[in-house]
Amino acid sequence: MEKLEIIGGRKISGTIAISGSKNATLPILVSTILTNKKVVIKNIPIVRDVETMIALLKTMGSSAKLNKREKIIEIINNDRLKTFASYNLLKTMRAGVLVLGALLAKYKVAKVSLPGGCSIGSRPIDLHLNALKKMGAKIKVKNGYIIASAKRGLKGCLIKFPKISVGATQNILIASCLSKGKTKLRNCASEPEVQDLINFLKKMGCKINKIGKRGINVEGVEKLKPAVHSVIFDRIEAGTYIIAAALTNGRIKITNVDPKIISTEIGLLSKMKVNIIRKKNYIIVTCP
């Protein structure tokens, strides 16, 4: 097995640009299925799951041009995409199940592999499936695949998730954008990655309103428009570097971040005597 050998005892210093968030990028890529208009997504991280999702979109018929150096992807979909997501692509990527809601909303049918080939119940897929059933979808699970249809389209309704799930919130949020009528989602996940998805969907013309911390109302629309969006930064990566600087008594400048998004983490570390200077799109971390 490969291993990392770390020789400690040194302060870290310098400037580091934080990558875009994988967990924000994946649902945003999925939501491009909803439109055949040109979509440009910036600041995407070049990691395996993102490349796998792009490959999945291409197998469905998307024209996806990725500029790895600039970390930008341009996507234009055909009028009719394939509605099959195979195990070969989804076996290593749990987020692949998010295409289920998008395909049902856009094309009224979908055949999607269970995440990682898992059996139903070993992951909280039931939250996704039960919500889609409530919206009018007919769903069965057979031979490791979710087979779903909604011949008359998905219909808006009240959905209260029995427990908080980022994936289920994102899946049903995406599905709601082209549904008929209003969908009211309650007990939703409220992570910044969910908010970033909302911001992108609104740029495409989706009608979405937050209700308190854990409520989202979506008014279904018939058509969407082109959009350009920059994905938020990776909170875990940023936090890792902040802590590394604190542990080594180092001094680093962390760029490509929005301090407001990690204000809770910054506040906690400040109480621990870590000096953090906040600016508009970067922070400086020093330790006494």
From TrEMBL:
GO terms for cellular component: cytoplasm. Residues 8-285 form the Enolpyruvate transferase domain. InterPro entries: Enolpyruvate_Tfrase_dom, Enolpyruvate_Tfrase_sf, MurA_subfamily, RNA3'P_cycl/enolpyr_Trfase_a/b. Its EC number is 2.5.1.7. GO terms for biological process: cell division; cell wall organization; peptidoglycan biosynthetic process; regulation of cell shape. Pathway: Cell wall biogenesis; peptidoglycan biosynthesis. It is found in: Cytoplasm. Transmembrane segments: none annotated. GO terms for molecular function: UDP-N-acetylglucosamine 1-carboxyvinyltransferase activity. Keywords: Cell cycle, Cell division, Cell shape, Cell wall biogenesis/degradation, Cytoplasm, Peptidoglycan synthesis, Transferase. It catalyses: phosphoenolpyruvate + UDP-N-acetyl-alpha-D-glucosamine = UDP-N-acetyl-3-O-(1-carboxyvinyl)-alpha-D-glucosamine + phosphate. It is an enzyme of class 2 (transferase). NCBIfam families: PRK09369.1. Belongs to the EPSP synthase family. MurA subfamily. This is UDP-N-acetylglucosamine 1-carboxyvinyltransferase. It comes from marine metagenome. The lineage of its organism: unclassified sequences, metagenomes, ecological metagenomes.
